[in-house]
């Protein structure tokens, strides 16, 4: 399996000015790597979840002026789309790679999912210390579990439940200069370890379609 690595050249994509020039670089530099990474990832996640999982690569089609500050692949159980479902994400900002179990604002059953996660709060807090929480998939700022106490976690989940645009993403981030990003096998193993650890929460919050 020829697994991709990520280089400074990839991260420098987000320094390119203008929507179309940056999108062209994303299509040329990053999306082929997402395809090479995402296809085996979807296979592994199909085995892990026991359901067919499908790869989606962000197209940023809604953007008309501002270039994207990040880009990602998503794996979900719906081949038509991922935004309305809990899904797994791997992507890049200019300074790190992220891997999330993602619950974004377009979920139709957000309140129910938030309640299920609130019921699992103790288990969320017991994840490894290098795991982090983001409350907005469009922004870089995320808090590691070391930086959060129980009150912080509860507030995050309540915000996700009660605020229309509220989101909840949990997973890990890898700095752009971490040597791990230069080893495709180790990176893939790390991503799958992360998603395997998060899979119980995914299972608790996913309404599978038959």
From TrEMBL:
User: Which InterPro entries is this protein grouped with?
Assistant: UPF0637, UPF0637_domain_sf
Q: Which Gene3D superfamilies match?
A: Protein of unknown function DUF1054
- Lineage, top-rank taxon, reads Bacteria
- What is the similarity comment for this entry? Belongs to the UPF0637 family.
Q: Can you say what this protein is called?
A: UPF0637 protein SAMN04488123_10479
Q: Kindly list the organism's lineage.
A: Bacteria, Bacillati, Bacillota, Bacilli, Bacillales
